[in-house]
Design goal:
5 helices, Lysozyme, 5 strands, mainly alpha, two-stranded antiparallel ribbon, three-stranded antiparallel β-sheet
Length: 142
């Protein structure tokens, strides 16, 4: 049985709780839990992480084009260097996912993060969604 098979739909994001400079999710907010799970899968919450041959950075392993699109959606002019700031990056990822994932369930949102606006349609993003689902279920340890 899939954890999110009930079709949990994402509403507007609720408040963040900030602890030691890192955004933490409210246990009952699905979007915040998803953002935590993505950060865990992408970098184990390491703001200094660099991946994809240097093309992705920060907690969420954001590429430049994703950052540019997300900051445009959010209405800010943050530099790509700010992708290593976990709080700013979380805001950009949330805006990106809410924009492109309207009406989609959490695992579709994870696939959008991994594969772009139509990532939920790409077979290549299924294994990524499975990792995020395991993180949401608590099956991945820190």
């Amino acid at each position: 049985m899939r954890l999110l098979a009930v079709g949990c739909m994402v509403a507007a994001a609720a408040c963040l709780f900030v602890s030691n400079g890192m955004a933490r999710a409210a246990d009952d907010d699905p979007m915040e839990r998803l953002l935590d799970a993505i950060a865990h899968v992408e970098s184990r919450n390491d703001p200094n992480a660099v991946g994809d041959s240097g093309r992705a950075r920060g907690v969420y392993q954001i590429h430049r084009s994703y950052w540019q699109d997300g900051t445009r959606i959010l209405g800010v002019t943050w530099s790509y260097q700010d992708a290593t700031d976990p709080i700013k990056a979380r805001q950009v990822v949330r805006a990106y996912l809410l924009h492109y994932g309207r009406g989609r369930d959490l695992l579709d949102l994870a696939r959008i993060h991994n594969g772009g606006p139509n990532g939920y349609k790409k077979p290549a993003t299924r294994s990524y969604a499975n990792k995020v689902e395991a993180a949401l279920a608590g099956a991945i340890d820190d």
